[in-house]
Write a structure and sequence with these properties.
The chain is rod-shaped, with a radius of gyration of 25 Å. The chain folds into two domains: 8-53, no CATH class; 67-138, no CATH class. The longest helix has 22 residues, at 32-53. It is α+β, with helices and mostly antiparallel strands and 139 residues long. Strands 7-3-8 form a three-stranded antiparallel sheet, covered by helices on one side. A three-stranded antiparallel sheet has the order 4-5-6, with no helix packed on it. The relative contact order is 0.13. It is built from three helices and eight strands.
């Protein structure tokens, strides 16, 4: 939303108008019902623009429920999401549980927003690059 352009402004009555459009001309050929519908739609659009300007509306990189990739650097004890061997990632038990760094597929949810591009990635290649960086730093 970095290319945000505002298309509405509030008139003296607090209703939304399209910037640069004569509202009288816009509404004059509409029935009362159509005029109310258009006014409601413009006010709704103006509310969305207000939220964008105030930083209250964010654009998600994917849909809720889409597959994303979480990079786990390590986990201990009960925070370990796995118990056993899973492909190239192994969980060990040597007095306590611990995992090697690994990637896990998850379904995206709003709770993951704060971790986007830190430990959660929409593109698998980005998650693999993060995992590689973690593994190189451990050497």
């Amino acid at each position: 939303m970095s290319d945000f352009i505002r298309y509405t402004e509030r008139n003296k009555f607090g209703n939304a108008d399209i910037i640069g459009v004569d509202s009288g001309e816009l509404f004059k050929n509409l029935s009362n019902v159509q005029g109310v519908q258009l006014c409601d739609a413009l006010n709704y659009f103006a509310e969305l623009e207000d939220k964008i300007e105030n930083g209250m509306l964010v654009e998600l990189p994917c849909k809720v429920g889409d597959t994303v990739y979480r990079v786990y650097e390590k986990c201990n004890g009960s925070s370990c999401p796995y118990n056993g061997n899973y492909g190239q990632w192994r969980c060990h038990y040597k007095g306590k549980e611990r995992c090697e760094a690994f990637i896990d597929e998850k379904k995206f949810s709003y709770e993951m927003l704060n971790d986007l591009e830190k430990s959660i990635f929409v593109v698998k290649g980005e998650a693999e690059a993060k995992l590689k960086k973690i593994q190189e730093n451990k050497k």
